[in-house]
Amino acid sequence: MRIYSALVALATLAAAAAPATAATTSAVTSVNVVKPVSMSKIQDMDFGTLTFAGFTGTRSIVLSRLGGVTCATDIVCGGATRQARFNVQGTNKLVVLLTYTSGSLSNGSDTIPFTADGQSSVTLTNTGAPGNNFDVSGTITVSSTTVGGVYAGTMTVTGEYQ
Q1: What's the number of domains the chain is made of?
Q2: Residue 75 in 3-state DSSP?
Q3: In terms of residue numbers, what domain contains 134?
């Protein structure tokens, strides 16, 4: 009987020391990796050649995003014109907001006011290369006293995710 009592006591002790039933569950873990925005210039902007036919005041010359130029009737626009073109790359389906600098073009001592104009955003259609191209247009304002010469300046385009 002692052996039986010892076995019952041992079984009772083992049952009391058994761990409780554990509960398990799981969670999905994810991450969205976003490539940084990068941009590169494909082509520079060129308003071509302007020949003044005698006027007073100021005139605006507009270069479209398609590369065509619109001149006042008393200015002759000629030569090869082209809009600026850029490429933006990043993460597919994200929207890149675009901002442009305006300022002036200079021949070293004289300036012509310049305003850049382009779309406000690009929705990326792929990740990385080839990216999306976009064109930038602009307007310059000349006066009857604008000194002849080659004028140049730098336009900056900034892109950041929305």
Answers
A1: 1
A2: strand
A3: 37-161
Other beta carbons less than 10 A from residue 161's beta carbon:
13
Kindly report, residue by residue over 12-26, the tens digit of the pLDDT. Answer: 655 555 567 899 999
In a domain, 17, yes or no: no
Prediction pTM value:
0.79
- The answer to whether 86 and 40 are in contact (CB under 8 A) is yes
For residue 27, being part of any structural domain is answered with no
Q: Are 46 and 80 in contact (CB under 8 A)?
A: yes
Contact between residue 110 and residue 155 where contact means Cβ atoms under 8 Å apart? no
In our burial notation (b when 16+ CB lie closer than 10 A, e otherwise), range 90-103 reads: bbeebebebebeee
The answer to the question of residue 21 being in a domain is no
Query: Could you tell me if residue 68 is inside a domain?
Result: yes
